[in-house]
Specification:
With 123 residues, the chain is an all-alpha fold. It contains six helices and no strands. The termini are far apart.
């Protein structure tokens, strides 16, 4: 499969109002959810598709209560940029696994305080 640099490319635009932004967010969310099985096979992930979809939902839920339209537009643009980079295989496996570090490696959690992190040898 030949990857074209403009595959999945979109022009950045601003939302007219909140209903327009909501529609764009839902479209982006649906694109991510539908592409989860493809991402799993492309990157050879040992994570089930259900966990991929759960993590995608968590990322969208993290920004659920954004009140500024310009911030929402920026988040939509970043989401589409990540989507394009992921499906064009411009990312490496480690870039995707950073979203799953607590599930993949229990030691990836931040230490409770400075001293315990220092004694563990974490930076």
């Amino acid at each position: 499969m030949v990857i074209n640099a403009t595959y999945l490319a979109q022009r950045t635009r601003s939302s007219v109002n909140w209903s327009d932004a909501k529609q764009r967010v839902l479209t982006s969310y649906r694109d991510w959810i539908r592409s989860a099985p493809e991402v799993q096979t492309m990157y050879g992930l040992s994570i089930p598709v259900s966990k991929l979809r759960t993590r995608i939902r968590q990322e969208f839920e993290r920004h659920r209560y954004v009140n500024d339209l310009s911030v929402a537009d920026m988040l939509i643009a970043k989401s589409h940029q990540e989507y394009q980079e992921t499906l064009n295989y411009w990312k490496q496996l480690s870039h995707l696994l950073k979203y799953f570090r607590p599930e993949e490696d229990p030691r990836a959690r931040l230490p409770k305080d400075f001293l315990s992190g220092f004694l563990e040898g974490r930076n």
